[in-house]
Specification:
It contains five helices and no strands. The protein is mostly helical and 116 residues long.
């Protein structure tokens, strides 16, 4: 008889700079959809949170995102460069106007670091 293999999200959790080699082609679309839409993978809050950070953080994702993530490492790198380019000048100007004291650094943290 014909048996259909069942898809389990947790079986496909990966991190790192590896290419898509070893990624089952029959599950590729499922995996990519899950990486974009789901934060629940194992049921363990800490592991799921760390996996989420590895896939969604602008800098950490450059190195630790899932090898089959729909966003390539190159796309992530370009996004990171654009993000840095758009935030560096306003950050420098904010520190220039408000100073390097607690007020300037606090404003920089609230207006630039937290949103990113």
């Amino acid at each position: 008889g014909f048996e259909m293999e069942e898809y389990h999200r947790v079986d496909h959790m990966r991190v790192g700079c590896l290419q898509e080699e070893g990624l089952p082609k029959k599950w590729k679309e499922h995996i990519q959809d899950d990486l974009l839409a789901h934060t629940y993978w194992t049921g363990n809050y800490l592991i799921d949170y760390l996996f989420f950070v590895c896939n969604w953080h602008p800098f950490i994702g450059l190195f630790l995102s899932h090898p089959g993530h729909p966003w390539s490492k190159f796309e992530r790198f370009l996004t990171f460069l654009i993000s840095c380019s758009l935030t560096m000048l306003p950050s420098a100007l904010m520190l220039l106007w408000l100073g390097h004291g607690l007020v300037g650094k606090g404003a920089l943290f609230v207006c630039v670091s937290l949103p990113v």
